[in-house]
Every structure is written in C-alpha cells, then in structure tokens.
Amino acid sequence: NPIETLEKYGTDALRFALSTGTSPGNDIKLTASRLEAGRNFANKLWNATRFVVRGIEPDRTNMEIQWNLLPVEDRWILSRLSRTISSVTSLTEGFQFGEAQRQIYDFLWSEFCDWYIELAKIRLHSITREAPSPVPVLVYVLETSLRLLHPYMPFITEELWQNLKKHLPLDWQATESIMIAAYPDATGIAPAPESERIMEPVIEIIRSIRNTRAQYKVESTRWIEAQIYSGKLTPAITPYSQAIQTLARARPVTFLDKRQE
C-alpha cells in the first residue's frame, strides 16, 4: 500500500528507494531494506544539517571561503564536490538518473558526513588563529549538495535548505526557495588532485585501524598503539596524527618511513 509506505518511511525515502541504483528497462524488487536505506539517508542529511547550523555563530556576517588559506581537508572535500557535480550533471544529461543519485548518496554519506564533518569537529574543538574555521566550507558544501539532490528528494532538501537559510546572512541567497535556486555548477571549484592524494591515505589509515580493532574485538573505550608505514607521504600525513588518534582511538601514533629499505 503506497499510502502506508509513505506514512511509515516518508515520501522522499520512497522516491529514493525507487530511483537509486536503477537503470531504464530493469525491474527492481522494492524491499523494506531499500525503504529503510532511504529513510536512513534522510535522517543522515537532517543530522548533518543540524550540526552545520549549530556551528554558525549568531553574529557571523561573512560566510566567504578564504580560498588561499584552506587546509588540505577543505580543498579535498571541495575537489570531491566538484567532481561529483560534473559526474552527476553528465549522468543526468544522459538520463542515467539512478547512477546519478547513487553518486550523490555516496558523496554525502561517506565523504561529507562520515569523513569531512568528523574532521571539522576536531578543528571546531581546537580552533586557532592560524587555521580558518571550517564553517564556511561546511555551509557551502551542504547547500550545494542540497541543490544537487533536490530533483530526487525535493521535500527534505527544501526543508533543510530553508532551515539553513534562516541562520545565514540576509544577502547569502537571494532566492526564496531551493526550487528556483540555480543548479550547481562545478566550473567555480577547481579540482585539487594533490589534496585528494594526501587525504585518501589518511582515510585509509583510519579505516584500517578501525577494521583491525573490529577484527580483534578491541573495546571501543580502549586506546591502542599504531605504527604507520607511510613512506614518502610521511611529511604530508604527519599533520593529521591528531585526527588519526581521535577517529581511530589510537595513541600513540608513530609514522615510520621505510623508503630506505
């Protein structure tokens, strides 16, 4: 019963289940797990927006990104956003809507929520004058992603976009609704392959330590020692030792360069 399904999971969750990962001409099995995945994604977006809104200072009037001062993780997420926009636009023009939505989902769930927001939390708790606040980048990526996702999940994106708009400067967005806001364009965001080259091993290190903890059933409250053989990337990865410690619960973290071997 579609009415019962809408009431239980939500309209956007049903749209998500029907369109993600599908291709023209193929039938899909609409299972409870697909509907739950759509609802979980909507909840993920809601929680991410709530986190970003909480980080916006009430008296903040300048949300411009200081491009020349951005740390590696900011350049990385902006680069990944640019690539996602380009790929999704190409897929949409080719009527490959299922794959387009899957890529938006992967970017928002994994790269933005699971990694960038977690890295931003560390910076927000240890903000210094040398490092710019991650809030402008958080707002920019979230707002752009909501516009990218809007054709597929129109109701929750409108709600979250309006909530975000209320906490930003009056001149931030001239349009009254996400429905008439411009579709994202990647031309203004330059890809940063070097930042991606640095962040990918950082993420893989954290993931590997987490997997090892799970494999040996190490208690979540227990800290473990980690030795990382990072080779020529050691100088670039070392600044992220604090992030590795926090996100992988590993202390101390030692970087070993075995290039001479």
Mean pLDDT: 91
Give the radius of gyration. Answer: 20 Å
Q: Bin the helical content.
A: 55-70%
Distance between the termini: 65 Å
Low-pLDDT stretches are: none
Number of strands: 2
Q: Report the oligomer.
A: single chain
Total number of helices: 10
Order of helices and strands: HHHHHHHHEHHE
Major beta sheet, strand line-up: 1-2
Largest sheet: 2 strands, parallel
Taken from the alpha-carbon principal axes, the silhouette is: globular
Provide a descriptive summary of the structure in words.
With 261 residues, the protein is mostly helical. The chain has 10 helices and 2 strands; from the N terminus they run ααααααααβααβ. The chain has helices at 2-9, 11-19, 32-54, 72-93, 97-125, 135-149, 154-166, 193-215, 234-237, 241-248; strands spanning 224-229, 250-256. It has a two-stranded parallel sheet with strand order 1-2. α1 packs across α2, α4 (72-93) packs across α8 and α5 (97-125) packs antiparallel against α6 (135-149). The longest helix is centred in the middle third of the chain and has 29 residues, at 97-125. The mean pLDDT is 91.
